[in-house]
Every structure is written in structure tokens, then in C-alpha cells.
Amino acid sequence: MRCHPIVSHHFSSRRPDVVHHYLTEAYGTQGMRIRGGGYRLSHHRINAGSFRMDRVAQSGDLRIDVEQLDSVVVCQSTSSMVSRVSDGELRPFRPGDVFLNAHPGRPYRIRWRRGEVLLVQLDAGLLHQVVSPAPGRRPAPIRFTDLQSASPVLAEHWRSTARYVRHAVLGNPEASRQPLVLGAAARTLATAALAVFPNTALTDPTRQDRRDAGAPALRRAIAFMEENAHRDISPADVAVAAAVSVRSLQLAFRRHLDSTPAAYLRRIRLERAHQELCMGDPRRETVSRIATRWGFLSHSRFTAHYRSVFGIPPSRTLHG
């Protein structure tokens, strides 16, 4: 997955025609109608390529009809009352609630009273980067079976995940420039969406997955990760290289190494960071910059992990 440099954009207008044009372009909606007047809409977007994080506020009482929206949009109301009609079902939402705008590709209506909402827009392809069949098998479309979070605990899981990405990743100038960090953040959001909202994605290994989870698949996966650790590679990328499904891949690592693909890739990247620290010039490099370049966002966690593997703090390696 390619990661593009993040772009921050702010929009504000009272003109209904300008607002309509902006929202249509921002969300790729088809057949949007907005009813209501005397309002100002303010929209702040951080665009990270495969996902966008928006803070949207308006001062009136708007009714918005949309014929089709192809991406996945997760909403969190912070101070607004919102009601949504989708597939003939009316659902009200209060501040703090977490919900999906609609089923992708389906029409819906929103009544949005004055206040603020936080939106996370995910490209549909992100879901298949964390849940993917084996090469040659026909992928089944991932469909959400409910537009509400499965439980209050899972709703809080989404809020904390989105808050982490917004502040720790996108709010960190160094981290937000690193493809490995942005790619991991995108897949973290996709994984959280699949965990929070009921869907048709399978999580348990099938009989075929268990047959595929052998040592040859593991060797192919490890070789691919060793060769491409510097790139933003997803579980689906590794599974394709190993010619198995994502679930087969996870099972193979658990069966043969008592590990996970993500943990194994993290160890490879830790070794690469160690090599850069050994060769780095402390007058030009910092531990934090090298760690972030290899996808380690938290300096304290990187230091603890590094010390547990190499027996010394990374700063001593760099300055030694």
C-alpha cells in the first residue's frame, strides 16, 4: 500500500451551494441533497491517503439525503444529536455514540442538529488488507451487518483507536511523514472498524486454511518480509507472497513459531533499526528518528523493546 504525504485542509462557508459542492467532492457522494438554511459549516480534514480524519461542525438543523457512498465512514458525535434512516430503519444518536453512516453503496438520510461530529473515512480496500482469502480464491465482499457498534466497550475501543491515530500519529510531524507508520495506522483503523461493527468477514481458519498453514508457506512469508521490511507491507501482501490466505498465514506463524506475522515483521525491523543505530552519526541522527523510520512510534516502547533484545538502550548503540 502506498502512503501519500498527509494534507491538512480547512473549509468554512454559509453558502448552501458551496457546502454542497464541497461535501460531494470530499466524500465522493452521489445524488446528495441538503435541506436547511441559516447555518455555517466548518470542516477540518487531515488526509492521509487511504484514510481521512475529519472534524465537522455546523450551526443549524440540516437534513442530508445521499443516494450512494462507496467508502466506509465511521461517525462519532461529540456534541450533536444525529438521526439516520438507512434501509427503512430510523436510528437516533447522542453525543458520544459511534456508528456507520450507511452501508457502502446504499442510500441513506441524516438529520444533523447543530454541533460537532468526528468522521473517519476509510477506503474500502483497507478492509481487505487485514482480511483476505488465499490467491486464486474468489474474495467475498465484506459487508457490515449492523451500522451500530456491537457494544459500549467496542464503541470505546473505536474512540480510543481514532484518538490515538489522530494525536499520536497525525499529530506527530516526524511520524506522519513515515510510510510505515501511516500504513500501520490505516490498517489499525480498518481492523478496529471490523472489530467494532458486526460484519461478514471470517475470523476463524477454515479447513483449507489449516491445510495451507505449513512450513513452505512460512518460509515464503519470511523471505518476503526480509526482502520488503523497508516497505509498507500489509498482512494481505505477505499472504499473497506466501500463496495462502491471511488466516492461513496467521496460523502458520502460530503453529511453527509461536508468534504472529506482525510480531515477526516487527523483530525484522528492530534488527534493521539496530543496524542503522550501529552505523549512524549521532551528530546527524537521533534514536527517535531512526525508530520512527522503521515504524516504531513510541520512543519509550522502542527503547524497552530494544533493551530487552540487545541488552543496552538504543542511545548507547548510537553514541557508542
UniProtKB/TrEMBL annotation:
<feature type="domain" description="HTH araC/xylS-type">
    <location>
        <begin position="219"/>
        <end position="320"/>
    </location>
</feature>
<keyword id="KW-0805">Transcription regulation</keyword>
<protein>
    <submittedName>
        <fullName>AraC-like DNA-binding protein</fullName>
    </submittedName>
</protein>
<dbReference type="InterPro" id="IPR009057">
    <property type="entry name" value="Homeodomain-like_sf"/>
</dbReference>
<dbReference type="InterPro" id="IPR018062">
    <property type="entry name" value="HTH_AraC-typ_CS"/>
</dbReference>
<dbReference type="Pfam" id="PF12833">
    <property type="entry name" value="HTH_18"/>
</dbReference>
<dbReference type="InterPro" id="IPR018060">
    <property type="entry name" value="HTH_AraC"/>
</dbReference>
<keyword id="KW-0804">Transcription</keyword>
<dbReference type="InterPro" id="IPR050204">
    <property type="entry name" value="AraC_XylS_family_regulators"/>
</dbReference>
<keyword id="KW-0238">DNA-binding</keyword>
